[in-house]
Amino acid sequence: MSLSRRTAARSVRLLGVTAASAALALSAAGTALACDITEFSAAAACDGTKGVITVTDKDATRVPAVITVFLENNGADLRQVGTEQTVTGSKKGVTVSFAEDWEPNAVYRVHVLAVKGKKTFVDADIAPNVTTPSEACKAEDTTTPTTTPSSTPSSTPSSTPSQTAAPAETATPSAPPSDSASGSAAAPVPAPASNAPSPAAQESNLAETGANSNTGLIVGIAAALVAVGGGAVFFGMRRRGSSQR
Questions:
Q1: Burial (CB count <10 Å: 0-12, 13-18, 19+), residue 62
Q2: How far is the C-alpha of 47 from the C-alpha of 137, rounded, in Å?
Q3: Which residues contact 62 (CB under 8 A, 6 or more apart)?
Q4: What end-to-end distance do the CA atoms of the chain give, in Å?
Q5: Residues 67, 153: contact at Cβ < 8 Å?
Q6: Three-state SS for 77?
Q7: Residue 76 main-chain phi, psi, to 5 deg
Q8: I want to staple 58 with a disulfide (CB 3.0 to 4.6 A). Which of 25, 93, 154, 157 is the partner?
Q9: How far apart are CA 185 and CA 178, in angstroms?
Q10: Cβ-contact 82, 100 below 8 angstroms
């Protein structure tokens, strides 16, 4: 049983529509998997005290891309930063760094050129341009402050001598040397008179005042002797008169 022309034409049209749909689907899938500028990003960062410009490639198709960075000045390229670098991206992202001692609020343009075979996938700048932070990079202060040395010397000389000078001894006049020519010793030098009163003078003063003496006892004994003598004379004279009678 042969197919009619109508049936054959309908089948051909159906196959054409299916082929066109498949071609569009493959084209869309290829476009979705192709390298694109939106898969690239850039930023200014610090690596210790040094500044860097980092570029990250998240191209899952792993198309090699050449990255070039330029310092901008009023919309024009002032200079190129370092040398261009080639990066092969991944789904997680691959990052390359450009050492640059950037100044605060500086602007950098990052250009991406991705070519595979004879086909160019990307030839454009990352938008927007990279603007650096408002503060420059500085090192973290991890050092321990040292103790400030004292301005006062460790050993201060004493204002007073360590040993007290002994008082000078009182000079005592020494005996003059003997006269070798005459053979006789010279007369000794009299000792200086002392202001303190002598014991004899003290006793004399006490006797004159009657203090600390035996004057009362002596007077009593003398009076007794006088009385005894007087009595003896009286009795002697009386006996003598009796014998004359």
A1: middle
A2: 8
A3: 88, 89, 90
A4: 241
A5: no
A6: strand
A7: -120, 155
A8: 93
A9: 4
A10: yes
Residue 238 is encoded by which pair of tokens?
A: 């009386």
Compute the residue count for the chain.
Answer: 245
Cα–Cα distance, 111 to 69 (Å, whole number): 6
**How far is the C-alpha of 219 from the C-alpha of 227, rounded, in Å?**
12
Amino acid symbol at 38: T
pLDDT in tens, the chain (245 residues): 455 666 666 665 666 656 555 555 444 444 446 799 999 999 999 998 899 999 999 999 999 999 999 999 998 999 999 999 999 999 999 999 999 999 999 999 999 999 999 999 999 999 999 999 999 998 665 555 555 555 555 555 555 444 544 444 544 545 444 444 444 444 455 555 555 555 544 554 544 444 455 677 787 888 888 888 888 878 777 776 666 65
Q: Is 85 exposed, middle or buried (0-12, 13-18, 19+ CB in 10 A)?
A: middle
Q: Please give the Cα distance from 184 to 178 (Å, whole number).
A: 7
Distance CA 159, CA 151 (A): 19
Spell out a b/e string for 12-27, using b for 16 or more CB atoms within 10 Å of the CB, else e.
Answer: eeeeeeeeeeeeeeee
φ, ψ of residue 19 in degrees (nearest 5): -65, -40
Q: Angle 119-125-130 (CA atoms, 0-180°, nearest 5)?
A: 150
- Eight-class DSSP state of 26: H
Residue type, 192: P
In angstroms, the CA 25 to CA 165 distance is 117
